[in-house]
Automatic annotation (TrEMBL):
Belongs to the peptidase C56 family. The keyword Chaperone does not apply. It holds the Pfam family DJ-1_PfpI. Signal peptide: none annotated. It comes from Plantactinospora endophytica. GO terms for molecular function: peptidase activity. This is Protease. GO terms for biological process: proteolysis. Residues 8-176 form the DJ-1/PfpI domain. Keywords: Hydrolase, Protease.
Length: 182
């Protein structure tokens, strides 16, 4: 039986510099499972995605993180890219938004460099997760146990390393979102 997200509202938190495929593929998976996606960002308008270091598409923002209410969403997805999570982790509203999902026990997906934002939200201590390998030391210093795995799930937190891991990431993400609160 395929997991369904019918009636679930999922926030994707991203800003300029997001790795395009790490935004579009999970979004497509969530929507294909019946979920309603909203792009939440630091500012309104559009965000500029990248394919590694090259500009790619732009995407309409549905609401700003300062206006978004975490209680209105059933789950959160944090796409990667280098600039995207670095900007998010420096924004107090974004950090509070992320933290609220963990406080409520809601499922969260984070891929590649996205766990940088989790560090600043102070939600990785005692958790096991994976990421782009260069974040290993940062995550370990924040109290996380880092593993080199295609996809890892820790009590509703789904993490993966890179775009090559997207098939596994998307499948587990939809599964955890369908399960709901942990």
């Amino acid at each position: 039986m395929t997991a369904t997200l019918q009636g679930k509202r999922i926030a994707f938190l991203a800003t300029d510099g997001v790795e395009e495929v790490e935004y579009t593929r999970p979004r497509e998976a969530v929507e294909a499972a019946g979920g309603r996606v909203e792009l939440v960002s630091l500012d309104g308008g559009r965000i500029q995605a990248f394919n590694h270091l090259d500009k790619s598409g732009t995407y309409d923002v549905d609401t700003t993180v300062a206006q978004a209410d975490p209680a209105a969403y059933d789950g959160l997805v944090l796409p990667g890219g280098v600039a995207n999570p670095d900007a998010l982790r420096a924004d107090p509203d974004a950090v509070r938004f992320v933290r609220a999902f963990f406080d409520a026990g809601k499922p969260v997906g984070a891929i590649c460099h996205a766990p940088w934002t989790l560090i600043d939200a102070d939600v990785v201590k005692g958790r096991t997760l994976t990421s782009w390998p260069s974040l290993r030391t940062d995550l370990s210093n924040a109290g996380a146990h880092w593993v080199d795995a295609e996809c890892h799930v820790d009590n509703g937190l789904v993490t993966s390393r890179k775009p090559d891991d997207l098939p596994a990431f998307c499948a587990k993400l939809v599964e955890e979102l369908a399960e709901g609160r942990h």
